[in-house]
Amino acid sequence: MRNQRNRRSIVTGTALLAAAVCLPLMTGCKRAPNADVVATVNGHPLMRADLEKYYQNSLGDAQQQPSPEQADNLRLNILHQLIDDEIMQQRAAKLGLQATDEEVDAKLAELKAPYTEEEFDERLKAKNITIDDLKHDLRRTLTSDKVLNKEINSKINITDADITNYYADHKSEFNLVETEYHLAQIVVTSQAAEDAGNLQNSKATNDADAKKKIQALHNRLESGEDFGALAMNFSEDSQTASNGGDMGFIGESQLQRDPNVYNSILKLKAGDISEIQPIFDPQTNKVMGYAIFKLISREPAGQRDLDDPRVQAAIRQELRDGRSQLLKNAYFEMLRDQARVENFLAEDIFKNDAH
């Protein structure tokens, strides 16, 4: 009995001594993480290999490598995003909202639709990702969307009173000072460029080639082919090709800077396409390419009334987007507060650079 009591006293004393040593040091007695782990979220490890993969992808084809400080900053920002994503994935698991295999496959098919199998594989190879990497990221993105739709977007209600109040406070924003034209374009140039800016990587190499290409596209449009699809696949303007050539609304005074284009568009009705228009280099005034324009709509100058369905739709979307962003920010902060996060990369950077 006496020996047992002595053994208990030794064990208890050892535990108390260890606690006494650890209490003042706190982090000094924390179990050292695996070198392959850069952070944990509620005990779930985030791996260094995954961080490095996203880090390398973020550099792209940059010729100049970042400085050590810039590299550390970039890695910290990427890891912050990975931590937020893991928090969201764990929330989705709790709610039973993970994306299904069918949803992932459907999204993948949507991404692959504009390409041949070989073209799609080449694009993945250029980005240094595999099809499994892509499916992994798609699953996590779709899962996050399902959580946000359930927890936030489904609960946003924009009332008629909200729209009326917004219109009253922003009435001047719906008064067009001049006629505006909603346009789309297909552009072909004879200038050299590494990237054609379209899905087919189609690029004219000289003026004769550009004329031939734009004429062929105009013929296809007159045969009834979709303007947006042709723009995405063949237009050489990288800023608009990905949006089906959509240029947004252009004011009349801006259009008038090019009288040929302006006069061509004046003749169009909504849905019509223009004749082929030359594009001039503003410095040399020489032809540098060709364009086809589509008039989507013409908005005359004047005050837009609240009973205009387009005004109501624009206000509703504006209010919904603003409220959604506010709630998302608050939602993420709440989830972060509830999560147990250990960022070992941040600790290492601070420990090594704070001396």
Describe the structure.
With about 350 residues, this protein is of the alpha+beta class. It has a domain at about 180-300: Roll (Chitinase A, domain 3), CATH 3.10.50. Helices cover about 55% and strands about 15% of the residues. The strands form three sheets. Strands 5-4-7-6 form a four-stranded antiparallel sheet, with helices on both faces. A three-stranded antiparallel sheet has the order 2-1-9. The two termini are about 55 Å apart. The model is unreliable at about 1-30 (pLDDT under 50).
Overall radius of gyration = 29 Å
CATH fold assignment of the domain at 178-300: Chitinase A, domain 3
Number of strands: 9
What is the 3D form? globular
Low-confidence stretches: 1-29
Instruction: Supply the number of helical segments.
Output: 14
Calculate the terminal CA-CA distance, rounded to whole Å. 54 Å
Alpha-beta classification: alpha+beta
Q: Biggest sheet, in brief?
A: 4 strands, antiparallel
- Can you give the helix content as a percent range? 55-70%
Secondary-structure element order, as H and E?
A: HEEHHHHHHEEHHHEHHEEEHEH
Average residue pLDDT: 87
CATH domain class name of the domain at 178-300: Alpha Beta
Strand content: 5-15%
